[in-house]
Amino acid sequence: MYIKSITICGFKSYKKKVHLELHPGHNVIVGSNGSGKSNIYAALEFVLSSKYDILSSAQRKQLLHDAGQSGVISAYVEVIFDNESGRFPIAEALVSIKRTIGAKKDDYFINQKQATKKELNNLLESAGISKHNQYFIVPQGQIAQRVKERDHERLQLIKEIAGTRVYEQNRAESKKLIHDADNKRHKVQLIIDYFEERLDELKQEKEELAKFETLDRQKRCIQFQIYERHKTQTENALESIENVEHEQDDENEKLHARLKKIRGKLDRHGKTRESLQINLEAAQKEITLRRNELQTLQRLLITLRTKESALRTDNDEYVDKKEAYEKQLQEVEQRIADTKRDLATVKAEFEALKSQELELRNQRASNQVAMENLYAKQTRFGQYRSKKERNATLKQQMEEQTTELDAQKTLCATFSAENEKIDAKLAAYMNKFRQLETVQKNSEAKLEEHEGSREGVKRDRSELQNDRKRLWREQNESEKSFQELKVKLDQHENDFRFTMSLSQYKSYIALKRIQRDLEQNGAHSKYKLSGKFYGAVIENFEITNREQFDYSIAVEAAAGNKLFFYLVENDAVAAQLIEIMKRERIARVTFIPLNKVRARPRQYPRGNVDVIPMLNLLDYDADAVPGIAAALAQIFGNTLIPKDLDIGYDYAMRENYQCVTLSGDIITSNGAMDGGFNETKYRRMKCFTAMTRIRQEMCEMETQQTGIQTQLSACNERLLAFENQLSRIDSDTRQLRQELANTKEKAMEIEDDMEMEESLKEKNVEKVRKHEHNMTHIEATVEKLRHESRQPLQTHLSEDESTRLETLTAENEQLQQQIAGMVDNSTEIEIRVHNMQSLLKDNLQPQQKDLNAKLKKCLQTFENAHAMESMREQIESERERVQKLQTDIEAHDENIETWQKELKSEDAKLEKLSADEQEFMQRIEQRSAHAEKLVGRQQALSDKIANLQKYIRELGALSATALKKFERQSISALEKTLKKLERDLQKYKNVNKKALDQFNSFNKEQKNLNSQNTKQMQDKEHIEQLMQHLDDKKDLSIRRTFTAINEKFRQTFRQLVARGNAKLLLFERAERAGNHTADDEDEDEDEGEEEEEEQSQRGRRVRKRRRSSNMRVQRNRRKSSLMSQQQQQSQTYEDDAVIDKKYAGIGIRVRFAAAAARRDKEEMDADEDEEEEEEEEEEEVVSTQAERGKAREEERERDMRQLSGGQQTVVALALIFAIQQCDPSPFYVFDEIDAALDQQYRKAVADIIASKKIDTQFITTTFRPEILHEADKCFVVGFKAKISTVQEMDATQVDITKFT
Question: Residue 1161 has what pLDDT?
């Protein structure tokens, strides 16, 4: 086992994660001072030692890298061991041990699993890694502390190696237990002493107790006689009371029987009343619903009638006025046509006058233009000095006239284009008008067709409504009959319930529910059965009544409770049903698995009319229920129905059959009879048969109601279809009428548009004419100006022009007169046109629109008439429903009245029965009160007897001889004797009645304690002998370990120091100084070996060396000093449980080269005195050993202090290597152990490490090349920015000098 790797993160100077993969041999760590080499060893101690087990808050911060400054709040160190050797008791090749540290707590991990500190310590201890005495980890500067340790500390190291520490702890605990046992034994001894004193007192108390018991025995005998006589008297009184009580019990039983009958009647009448109450409440709820529905229908009727009234009021205004409105419309339209015709004639006249007037006006305008031109020419004569100037002006005027002419032409073209558009619009309007006329004709034809269809649908609907009324009546009658059957069924079910016990009825209802669930849901049922469940026996057969006899009582009497056995297909189904019953907590029932039933063949009497086999009276469906024949044969196969009891008895005794009469009397096959009044006993079959018959009738009635409902649904659907058809017809009719009205309105709108367009066209034509006339004048003016420009410049008009001017003036005056006359005529005609147009627009056309609107309203009224008709039909339908509901309500009222009467009758019966019940209860209470008094007296007497018996028992066992002595004395004499004895007993009132028991108990306890004390002393001796034996073994183990380590220490020291010598000394305590110690033996042996080595070096012969007398004196002084020191140590460590009682400590004696030379001279001088030294050694006295031990200790301590640091290091390393050979550690950690060594010692240490690294791992730090040269791996520690880093390098390439 060795350390495979070390991982450090956040610990001390290692802020970042550092990972070291170690070699199983020698690993060397180098680096500058303060770089963090020692922190690696601190990390190992942090995980593997107890140095860091208890940490304060400040110490925790010191272990963290710059805690609180750079954000490091936790650190961890992980050490991974190679466990191929199996030193750790874990079946894994690698064992990881990890410890994390934070500001408040630590965590431990073993193989990445969290563990406790105790678990970690146990694991390390199991691998031989002690956390308390770790000699294999040597921190920096502490290598020499191994030789400076006190002797008892070094002894503890040897004990740790020898494995005796655990034993010493257990031994101390055992000593403590022995001490506690001694204390307890002392207490027990005190108790034994007390028992001896108490036994003496109890002997005297025993004698007084004997006298007391003699008197007490006589007293108890007298008391027994008194108690026994009182008991006999009390028992006689109690027996008389019990006789009275038995008589009253018989009377109470009779009263209770009658009360039970009354309560049975009360229960039945109560159930009947409850059923009536349920039916009454259901009927009241139903009638409430019907009345609510009736109110809803009545409100609907009121709403419909209100709407009908509104429609009628609205319709009355226009009804029967359509023809008048049409006649008026025709007259108005005729007047409009006449007026339009007259207007056209007058317009024609007006147009002719306007044309004449226009011509005259045009002629006058032409004359006026000619006159204006002449006047303008005349005006221009004096304006221009030359023709050219005149022509320029004329040219300008001609251009202006030409521009005006173009404008007039443009206007004419514009108005002409507008007229063309108007013509196109008029043509389009005309086409639309013709299309509207066609649409109007088609709509009128369709209206006539729809009217015919509507009348046919109304006839069919009326027939269907009559059929629905008939179906409603049938449905009411069926529902009434169904309700009556339901009431009867409830009554029979109530009677059927009381034919069996409550648990049996609950089981029947529960199994019936399961059967219905299976029948309704099949494979999807929540009850999963592997076969079929056929129900109770009573449900699977019917009785055939022959010759009008009723066999139901006989069948029920024969079957009994077997009627409610349940048939299943096989036993697996029965088992499954039983599990279901357990789960649902259903009471016990009996199942008949049909696969297990085997019917026994029977031979019934043939040709005999006196008896009938009961099995022949049963009808059943063997196909539906396979195996039912065998089941019924098992129940009824051995039963006959005789004519009377005599015949039945004869057949029962002769043929071995069970016979049952028609009245239910039973004669068994062994002759026993059971019968009597059975009117109320056998009712199951009657009730079940009645229930079955009523259910069949109800089923048939439900089928009938379903058929009626189907017919009603079909009828309603057809009525709904007719209503929808009528609605469609009415909708289509309304749409056609609306389309017709819209068509007429559109035609009138088109006519109006055409008139507007024609009027606009006329205005445009007038404007064109005016502009054309203007164009003619302009052209004439231009022509005249052009003609004038060709003429020479003149100063006045010519004669022709003057004549022309006068002619034109005269002609204009004449034209003005004609125009005035035409204006008067055209004004009159225009007034006539305006009047006609006003008549059309303001009178006739509004009348036409008003009449059209009224006709449209008449059409709407016609539609309202259809709506009113539909509403009346709906009102009639709802009224019929109201009548139906009223009929139902009346029927329910009759039922309610009937049930109320029955309820009152039941209440009266219940009241009478309750009164009877109260009367009987009062009588029972009176008897109960009297019985309670008797019971009270009886209880008092019983208590008295019990007390007397108790007193007698308390008296204890008495001899018959003593009792006979007082048998013939009277009670008074006995009482006098008793008083005398009580006075005598008063003298012994303070006697200890438990004296004898206490004496025996104390005596027995004393013997037990003495025996126990003796046994404990024997156990203590055995334990002490065992402890002594283990102490001897422990001493032997310590000596063996010491001898082995001493030998290895001597050899290792010689390897380090060529001419040196060293040894260990085992010191015993002062009280054992008289014995020969191992020190003397070791000294003799060591001295001999040293002498042999020195003689071999000097080349002299080998001889046995003896110590000189001076040195012997020094040795004795050292022993004396050691003994005194041991006494002090034994006092100092007296309370320490682990301090050894025999050995005081381990000392070290070493010699280097100079000391060895001096010793050679001393030995040469001492050769002659060898014999004398031996004799003196034998004459050593124990009394001087303490002084010699003290002198030796002082000399030793002085010698160790005189050693240099390098020599102390050499001694410590020799000791560590010696321990390693005796108790090998898997690894060793040395921190700068060669710091104080000379070169020769460093080389020797390096050689030893090199020789041992094959089997042991070494981790060392150094500044010297000797150890570095022997390294298998080298790690260089760097330090920068307060952070340590580690780098693996080849040892041969490392320059060790740069780190010194």
Answer: 43
Whole-angstrom distance, CA of residue 385 vs CA of residue 1055: 166
**Strand, helix or coil for residue 1104:** coil
Greater model confidence, 563 or 1217: 563
**Lowest mean pLDDT across 612-616, 797-801, 858-862, 1284-1288:** 858-862
pLDDT bucket at 909, cuts 50 / 70 / 90: confident
Q: How far apart are alpha carbons 138 and 140 in whole angstroms?
A: 7
Residue 1185 has pLDDT above 80, yes or no: no
**What is the CB neighbour count within 10 angstroms for residue 180?**
10
Is residue 926 packed enough to be buried (19+ CB in 10 Å), middle (13-18) or exposed (0-12)? exposed
What 3-state class would DSSP assign to 55? coil
What is the spatial distance between Cα 33 and Cα 1277, in angstroms, rounded to a whole number? 10
Q: What is the average pLDDT score of the chain?
A: 76
Q: How far is CA 277 from the centre of its chain?
A: 47
Q: How far is CA 835 from CA 333, 473, 826, 842, 849, in A?
A: 18, 74, 14, 10, 20
The span from the CA of 591 to the CA of 581, in Å, is 12
Tokens of residue 920, six digits:
């009987």
Cα torsion for 457, 458, 462, 467, to the nearest 10°?
Answer: 20
Around 46, how many Cα atoms within 13 Å sit in the side-chain half-sphere?
30
Residue type, 721: A
Q: Of the candidates 754, 580, 550, 776, which has an alpha carbon nearest to the alpha carbon of residue 663? A: 550
d(C-alpha 157, C-alpha 1143), whole Å: 13
Measured in degrees and rounded to the nearest 5, phi and psi for residue 326 equal: -70, -40
Instruction: Region of 656 please: left (phi>0), alpha (psi -120 to 50) or beta.
Output: left
Q: What are φ and ψ of residue 77, in 5° steps?
A: -130, 130
Task: Give CA–CA dist 119/105, Å, rounded.
Answer: 17
pLDDT at position 78 is 94
For residue 535, what is the enclosing H or E element?
strand 533-536
Express each pLDDT in 319-365 by its tens digit: 556 667 777 778 887 887 888 788 778 877 877 877 777 777 777 77
Residue 1087: closest CA among 1012, 1004, 1149, 1005:
1149
How confident is residue 548, by pLDDT bands cut at 50, 70 and 90? low
Q: In terms of Cα–Cα distance, which of 197, 409, 31, 325 is closest to 1278?
A: 31
Q: Phi first, then psi: give them for residue 1288, nearest 5 degrees.
A: -85, 130
| Contacts of residue 747, Cβ cutoff 8 Å, sequence gap at least 6 | 433, 436, 437, 440
What is the share, in percent, of the chain residues with pLDDT greater than 90? 4
Sheet hosting strand 533-536, strand order edge to edge: 533-536, 566-568, 591-593
Task: Tell me which H or E stretch contains 887.
Answer: helix 845-955
Q: For the whole prediction, is pTM greater than 0.70?
A: no
Beta-strand pair 137-138/106-110 = unpaired
Closest CA to 284 of 892, 905, 898: 892
CB atoms within 10 A of CB 274: 13
Reply yes or no on whether the pLDDT at 1170 is more than 50. Answer: no
Angle at 311 between CA 310 and CA 315, to 5 degrees: 120
For 249-306, write each residue's pLDDT tens digit: 778 777 777 777 787 777 777 777 777 777 777 777 877 887 887 788 778 777 777 7
Q: Which residues of 147-165 are buried (b: 16+ CB within 10 A; e: fewer)?
A: bbbebbebbbbbbbbbebb
In one letter, which amino acid is 1048? K
pLDDT tens profile 522-546: 888 888 888 889 999 888 888 876 5
